[in-house]
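lol ok so funny story. i was supposed to be doing the assay writeup but got distracted and ended up predicting the structure for this chain instead. priorities right. anyway since i did it might as well share w the group, maybe its usefull for someone
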Amino acid sequence: MTIAPSQTVKAILGPTNTGKTYFAIERMLSYPTGMIGLPLRLLAREVYARVVERVGDGAVALVTGEERIIPAKPRYWVATVEAMPMDIHVDCVVVDEIQTAVDFDRGHIFTDRILKARGFYETLLLGSWTMASVVRKLLPHAEIIERPRFSQLTYSGSKKISRQPARSAIVAFSARQVYAIAELIRRERGGAAVVMGALSPRTRNAQVELYQNGDVDFLVATDAIGMGLNLDIHHVAFADDTKFDGRQSRPLTPSELGQIAGRAGRHKRNGTFGVTGGTEGFDEELVVQLETHDFEPVKVLQWRNSVLDFSSIERLRRSLEISPTDKVLTRVPVATDQLALEFLSRNEAANYARGHEAVKLLWECCQTPDYQGISPAAHGEIITRIFTDLRRHGAANEDWIVEQVRFCDNSEGDIDTLSNRIKQIRTWTFVANRKNWLADPSHWREKTRDIEDRLSDALHERLTQRFVDRRTSVLLRHLKDKRMVSPEINERGEVRLEGHLLGTLEGFRFTLARADGEVDVKGIRAAADQAVAPEIRNRADRLAGAPNEEFVLATDGRLRWRGDVVAELAEGDTLYRPRIIMLADESLTGPDLERVQDRLSLWLRHHINTTLEQVMALEAPADIEGSARGIAYRLYEHLGLLPRAEVADEVKALDQDVRGKLRKLGIKFGAYHIYLPLSLKPAPRELALILFALKNGGIRQPGVTDIPHIVLSGRTSFLVDPEVDTRLYEIAGFKVAGKRAVRVDILERLADIIRPLIAIDPARYQGELPSGAAEGNGFRVTVEMTSLLGCSGQDFASILSSLGYRLRRTPKVAAPVEAVAATDAAPAEEAVSTEAPAAEAVAEDAPVVGEAAPETVVAEEAAPAAEEAAPAAEEAAPATDASAEVEAAPAEPEFDEIWFPGGRRQNEQRRHEPRRRDAANADAPARERRNDRQRPKGPTRPEGSARPEGAERPRNTRPANTRPKAEEGRGVPEKNERNDRRPPQREERKVAFDPDSPFAALAALRGKKD
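and the output, tada:
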């Protein structure tokens, strides 16, 4: 486009109804060639038609984003501002509505045209007077011409929608508001035409024709009428004064209100404006501004650099981010095309954007408008596909285009459906009108244009059918006369008939909306049911063929289809086969009801079989017989989770081969439970809760709907609710331990931590003791344990107590350590360590010591040895010298808390009772027999290991970790503490034992060591 001298630029500014556009068209047509850029596709279509009437269609070209009509030798070009071909030389250039340069989304385009679009002889910039100061600063030599309004504009206050005068335009700012107002006017005043910017030009023109030829006297529109549409409007009523601008809902500025209100009154006829629909009246200051067209001047225009660097994507991005140098210009926020560029630069499209031409093509693809208003990512995926096809194949994939276009080629549906299809086809119309993007662009231009026209015609019919109804009778009259039309159901389930709210439809149940003053509710209900019955039958058809993904079983035991409740579960004949109760009106009967029930039953069986797949496999597992089969079936009956105590004897009887087979079925033998780990996930547990509750107390009992939320939260333990059946916690995968419920798998991890600690002999352990290890097969609570269970202190202690562990609390005192004690302690330590291997031989699936006797499995064989090896610190404190008692005890002594396996205190008490008796009254033979029973069979003490007869240990120097002497002169205890109980002069006797027992190996190792 030729850059002309600045004195040829004229800014024609003023309010609406000043004849600016008419004047500009006449000036353009006075030159041999010309071009006009308009803000809307609708307005471009209108001006194109007007120019064609004057000079013929062979001399006029129409260029918009979605439409290109270019004859062989056009002399005049009519285009949207974005689509203006800037490389064409014409004599006169016109840019309309230049005040749009303040818009965040499109403003930078208008600013660029203000600065760069020039005709060879004349350039006309049309817009509001608010642009005068900005034009002076940007274009100092431009001629500014002010045009006065032809008619007067007067404020008329507030009126109800039903009382608006004829030839009124009621303005709202959302499709929902527009439709609601149009329905109200149809009922009260006979009908209304609808005009919105989202409509196609063909639909808009058809609707405007309804209004212009007098078929209807009312027009319901968005702010699209504020952009130069020339209509015979006498009054403009604002049903709202706020709008969503793509980023936020905000009040309209006085200038925006004036642009819309100015559409009232054409040429010499005066017009009025006011408010309606609950909108607060305008204050006096605003009214004066609107009537006098005196608004705040525009100070800043949106701007973006148009001289772009296409050498690389990064340089293109940097060139787009260049800031303006003029103070009246501000860099536009990130626009839709820049968001698309950012998206493509991060995916595979960036690999194809190498070189100037490739990057330029990438930017052209990014400028594809998002007509559908989808997410940036979804819009970016479409652009990515187009660009990669262009780079790889030279054109967009035709099969893909065929699929996209075929989806839009359907003129059936309601207003919203058709509107959405028009938005989608506009994208492909835009693509078809790009140069060299398609292999056969002419074919696709005709195809997409034909589809858009047919959709537009269908949409016009739906709008007319819905909003242009000369019958003014109310709903009750229609129902009594049985003149019914198809009900309309929105996304919230609201059923509207002829614009009236009948009620709500959820699934297959219709709830009648009651209104004050209704006298014939029964008749209305019957008529409403009759109107809704077809929709219920249609839903039955859709549900019968619906995929599994559309069904959901909620925690309340109700089946939902597409979010609507359609049925609920009830107790069935078996645990895994609950009954389905349909929640439907009488309209769903006969074959429709049977098909729905069959489909829901089929889905429920599939859902149970897949969600609890491992559990269902235990009903009759192959290659499993005897007690193992019984254990598997018990697990099946208990929904995949079974306390070990209930089958302890059966588990003990299993050999390793059988256990291996059970493990292959996914069964884990834990310390406290036998369970299927995969079935502990939230989905199986939630379903298990529902199935269990149906058979035990009902689905409405406390906990059934609450516990699944706790499972999903990932908490390892929590306080139990006393009102909740403890069995529900077990079914949900938790064990009730004290006042808390602990996750089953977490209990097993706790057992894994405790088991090695109680098997450690501190006296013989090499290196630094693990955290939590304690003497006498006990353990101390560690941070690892409390962190694992998510609790500490009394809560954690209550859990250990409930698991069978017992606490010993002793004050922490400093015990003297002497060399003699250290040397004498060695034999005792060695004796204790000989029993350790037996305790460590517990299998991986054996329970930790401390649970009830049936669950101890292999560990119970080592229990006597562990008990005999434990210290008796609670019965006898170490002897101390008198001088060591000088230190005063602290005011608040610290305690050493050690936990021991269950039953330890009772065993120790019985074991120490002989020590409390007089040694002279002890029956030596009885002790000898008792020692024989308690002492495991093993190797005899090597010769020389006993202390020489008569040698006495110095008093008050008892070695650590040994028992005190019952009386002086008994001698030093030998390597095993149990030798304290036999007479000092007793001869050692050789003990025979089974060579295949585990103690034979220990004896052999000990013999080698000695």
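The first helix runs from residue 20 to 29. The chain has 33 helices and 34 strands.
back to the writeup now i swear
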